[in-house]
Amino acid sequence: MTLPHAESSPWVELSREAWAELAPETPLPLSAEEIERLRGLSDHIDLDEVAQVYLPLSRLLSLYVSAAGKLHREQEEFLHGQIPPRTPFVIGVAGSVAVGKSTVSRVLQQLLAHWPEHPNVALVTTDGFLYPNAELERRGLMQRKGFPESYDRRALLRFVVDIKSGRDEVLAPTYSHLVYDVVPDETVVVKRPDIVIVEGLNVLQPARTREDGRTGLAVSDFFDFAIYVDAATRDIKEWYVTRFLRLRETAFRDPSSYFRKYAALTRDEAIAEAGRIWDSINGPNLEDNVLPTRSRANLVLRKDADHSVRYVRVRKL
What we know:
Blueprint: E1 11-15, H1 16-20, H2 32-38, H3 47-78, E2 89-95, H4 101-113, E3 121-125, H5 133-139, H6 153-164, E4 169-176, E5 181-191, E6 195-199, E7 225-230, H7 233-249, H8 267-290, E8 299-303, E9 309-315
Parallel strand pairs: 2-6, 2-7, 3-6, 7-8
Antiparallel strand pairs: 1-9, 4-5, 8-9
């Protein structure tokens, strides 16, 4: 299935069925148990979903990685070897809170690592680049956590630049969802991977205009491929509330949890509180900052109310 007036659109749209046919003979390297470990609290991903949606996507991404390698070799020959070794292929994964982008990223990491051409696949989330809570409090941004201004964008940009500069080892800060804060003195070490997946709410944000009127660099300027995980806003809100209720029965009960105060809420109180948080923070951030970046992606995964991918949009080359 293609979009109406497809000749005037920069996208090719494929139904789930048509997309699944693109890699019919590619073996699925993950077991049901492995997929269960990879999925998030509110995701209903299974073997069929991985085989029909994410396996073809991993194949497409592998083609892009191979093409980038071929171009590097040809450029090296053209410049008579006067360029450094090839840098990692960087994939950005964007989308709303609770849309399932973390699960998408983890599944892709595992699938891509099974292709022999690129066995070393690193995954970094941008949560670690949030300002620590103390700094957010100082700036009056605790109620805007997750909005673009709540991130240390300079540090995130420096991280991606270092990756694309070919540094042997690059460090990324670590974030704990349990304590809802950046973990001091704890880092993720990225050592010369073949592929780096950078997952986060705002990774496709355009560059900001500086006070002098000049435009700076954006993190996405250094992406080789970008994916946006999409769904109807009403469905994402429902998934967020469902996840909140499950966390209320699990992680929120941990004495170390930042959200332990929610563990004592009744079900109705928890639903109301989750709705309030969504309507005041996550919903506005989605509408104002995250959703407008969808058109900057190379590929869009559109989900149905049951979390299954309904269709895939691929930007034309």
